Records
---
Amino acid sequence: GAVVSQHPSRVICKSGTSVKIECRSLDFQATTMFWYRQFPKQSLMLMATSNEGSKATYEQGVEKDKFLINHASLTLSTLTVTSAHPEDSSFYICSASGGPNNEQFFGPGTRLTVL
Amino acid sequence: AQSVAQPEDQVNVAEGNPLTVKCTYSVSGNPYLFWYVQYPNRGLQFLLKYITGDNLVKGSYGFEAEFNKSQTSFHLKKPSALVSDSALYFCAVRVPGAGTALIFGKGTTLSVSS
């Protein structure tokens, strides 16, 4: 299957700093990328959907000024957690879809810990 | 509202025994159905999917799932569980015509004992 990478895999930061997470589709062009958030032992919660070259669509309750998403190319989307706080600590997973069946392929996730 | 239900938080089976992880859905139209597995601190790995055709779908690592339209279910099964199957399993649906976003169930932790 197609490969999606995320960087970094783990990040620890101080409260008030901003953190950028990259999501890359390595061997296919992703027309759409998704960002999910997962709390311990819970399901994935869709945060936003982004299409290359256009603004992301955020799910209800997700602050767009807090979670900045940029989908600058067909292989790269970034999620920036601005002014991070401890409650933003979570596991963030991206997925990318493309190809004839528009199947979703998931990245390995990024563990964010805000101190 | 569209939803996916995984009624069991945890399923415990002994190695070598058959396993079933349940999933039911409530969506409009004819959904696409998926199963994913997640190991600790890892992303989701695709197991199998049902789009159309044969109701019994075979996937990775010996898993299979049966689509039952009348019961709106898509239970995951394996004839003989392995300790290495222990993980978190997610059922998901995609509603045709509603974009490519997936709706996930809350997940079921499978624990296989030796």
Note: The longest strand of chain A covers residues 90-98.
---
Amino acid sequence: DGGITQSPKYLFRKEGQNVTLSCEQNLNHDAMYWYRQDPGQGLRLIYYSQIVNDFQKGDIAEGYSVSREKKESFPLTVTSAQKNPTAFYLCASSSLAGEEDTQYFGPGTRLTVL
Amino acid sequence: AQKVTQAQTEISVVEKEDVTLDCVYETRDTTYYLFWYKQPPSGELVFLIRRNSFDEQNEISGRYSWNFQKSTSSFNFTITASQVVDSAVYFCALSGPFGNEKLTFGTGTRLTIIP
């Protein structure tokens, strides 16, 4: 089945540790995105990538890093510099196919900092 | 700058009632795209609809319908004969002229359908 997978579903981290969230898609989409969702708020864009080996900062990139070494994969690292990392993280992808392009989302990873 | 406002934070209705979720947007782009997503308790965002700013026709899909009015910058979503499975958080979102850039989301409306 085609889709977007994120792992793990739940992640616990101690303060001061870096942690990497996985996002994989088998939809052959060119673009991939990372959003953060806090309780009672909408989603905010962290990073996005429209082509392998290239990515751009979104609205809240500080304290995060990404890589795009393969078209299918767009991992997000939450570094110790991120002051309030506890949140729900959603990965999305889209085809960049013009009129019918739409972002589709994965199931999300809930990160809790202890 | 783009902005999406969903003024209704929470709505509760009894099953089988109709319910309308409001969405008001702001943008300086002449071409833009509007979206609705559903977020059930599992957390995944489910795509519902995408609408081009040049297409002001209302759309109906089963029990769902959307009313796009450029004059009032609104893109409202109506569920007819609501069901318990419709309980979720619904997000309205806006993107720029290419439709695949950053999505600007509203804060969402939590809809609870009471059996």
Note: The CA atoms of residues 12 and 77 of chain A lie 14 Å apart.
---
Amino acid sequence: EPEVTQTPSHQVTQMGQEVILRCVPISNHLYFYWYRQILGQKVEFLVSFYNNEISEKSEIFDDQFSVERPDGSNFTLKIRSTKLEDSAMYFCASRPELVGNTIYFGEGSWLTVV
Amino acid sequence: DQQVKQNSPSLSVQEGRISILNCDYTNSMFDYFLWYKKYPAEGPTFLISISSIKDKNEDGRFTVFLNKSAKHLSLHIVPSQPGDSAVYFCAASHNAGGTSYGKLTFGQGTILTVHP
């Protein structure tokens, strides 16, 4: 069964450093998402991406965050200058065009900012 | 943000019995609801969904019921199996247009433990 893959599975970074989280969505999917879950809290929407541009973003997704689809397969989330409060599990997700709301999540990248 | 609430942090059930997980929402614009299951260190896995035009959707051992007037949905698992032990998340969406699909608001999750 096709799946969304994410790398790295776990990254530890110093506060103020840049981090790039990578995702390979399911191959025939056209909508891409990033969500995050801070330990003990809800899974939260960050951003949606379609046709090489951001469709929607949450209040969390401020100027230190950016997303990119640099080639036909990868979808990346960049955090420019990490803060302690960015420590969370970051989930990439994707969905096929025209198919409802069901999105398919990757296994997550656990980011620890120290 | 309390638009989607799962008031029971945990539920313990005997194998073979029914598990009922509950979810309440406050945003009347939500028109599509999903349940996801999550194991530790894994991403959420889609289980079942329901559109607001229906009040019930069934898939094997899983049934979701939607009560729009009460803004309440529930997930029934019958019979429960030890492998069902996981965190279950309720999620909701408002279909304002194509690009809003997939923007989900999650509940805080319920830990289900099914004892052999």
Note: The mean pLDDT of chain B is 93.
